[in-house]
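pinging the channel bc i need a second pair of eyes. not urgent but kinda urgent?? the chain im working w is below, pasted from the shared doc
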Amino acid sequence: MNESLVVNDSSATAGSGEGMSWPEVDSPQQNSSLDFSTAPLDFPINPWDIMLCMSGTVIACENAIVVAIIFYTPTLRTPMFVLIGSLATADLLAGMGLILNFVFQYVISSETISLITVGFLVASFTASISSLLAITVDRYFSLYNALTYFSEKTLQYVHVMLVGTWGVSLFLGLLPILGWNCIEDTTTCSIVHPLTKSNLTLLALSFFVIFVLMLTLYFKICKIVCHHAHQIALQQHFFATSHYVATKKGVSTLAIILGTFGASWLPFAIYCLVGERHYPSIYTYATLLPATYNSMINPIIYAYRNAEIQRSIYMLLCGCFQSKGVYRSRSPSEV
């Protein structure tokens, strides 16, 4: 997903060896989808590619810390942190994919590299979005089955979700490499070369399904939280303050989670459905770049705000990880 990912519909121009300037790349007549190009550029590096690479660098650094913290802290072995670790791993791979995509784009011109890079990014971002759904499911069950949440059965269904998340993500990432691409038939190309229009439509529709499921589950979570806060407030006889504060905190947190997720991915998902390969590539960049920001914000929402993660970071900086100790994490439902 880079400027070199722009397919020039005029083969004569590419064959002549004439340089393409940045404005020419974005013209509706010449542009299309993102693709590797061997034509020399008057503007040596596409500014959008620089921003994507910088975004990937920040994403990789942020999530590498989270992965290291969870991996090296024995007390963080509860289902909640296992799923957060899965999310951080997926986002870490996505950040690395953006960096590698930038490097390969300006060093190697190869259809094979293009397929591998795009497949890697598809698998990583799919795993990231799917991990968000798995975290949502875990939060719902931690409230719905609060009494049996800390049991071996919970860990088992978490493992099942992880296998499903990464299995589906790997499958979708391999599809372009296994032949579902538009390298031989450019008329089937989407706004993201070498993905076909049908392939990108499948990915976009999958996102909408996940988004609707998350929206439904968080709505149910909000109802449960409000009901619990109401019951506690009645028992303690200060409904006006306790119930209002707890409800406001839960709703505001849910709004941040869903608002961030939707604002990041919805523009790109919608454009994947309505965009055509001959549209100016700047539209693809303008919707793709915010989508990467979701992987940048995820560790802040799901990891760095957590008290145990904060404590582990402090212990890491002090070089005094606890090798022993029994800890039972607070429920992930602390929305």
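so The longest helix spans residues 197-236. and The chain is about 70% helix and 0% strand. — does that match what u expected or am i reading it wrong
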